Amino acid sequence: MSITDEIRTRLQSLEFESLELFDDSAAHAGHAGAASGGGHYELTIVSSAFIGKKTLERHRMVYQPLADLIPHRIHALSIRALTPDEF
User: Fold this and answer.
1) What pLDDT, on the 0 to 100 scale, is given for residue 34?
2) Positive or negative CA dihedral for 43, 44, 49, 55?
3) Does 3-82 carry CATH code 3.30.300.90?
């Protein structure tokens, strides 16, 4: 399973309505964090689970199911976590 597929699978627990994941690893080739094989990703996720949650809480909800992938398979993850109304 690719890392992008694994990220999508692990985030299914958030019952997202939309998930866009961009692998930006190629732009960071030669970067110190990339030396270990960890990729750079940009994530936009839309879920009702974020309603009433502050940004930090939303990010924690995303990081929790991915925790064991950081920092080895995921070096950097930019998160945009939105409610359906915000999207």
Assistant:
1) 54
2) positive
3) yes
Residues linked to residue 44 through DSSP beta bridges, in sequence order: 20, 80
The model carries a pTM of: 0.85
Contact status, residue 15 vs residue 48, Cβ threshold 8 Å: yes
Task: Name the stretches of the chain with pLDDT < 70.
Answer: 26-37
Cα–Cα distance, 8 to 10 (Å, whole number):
6
**Domain residue spans in the chain?**
3-82
Q: Quick one: pLDDT at residue 24? A: 86
Cα separation, 74 vs 70, whole angstroms: 5
Nearby residues of 80 by Cβ (< 8 Å), 6 or more positions away: 42, 43, 44, 45
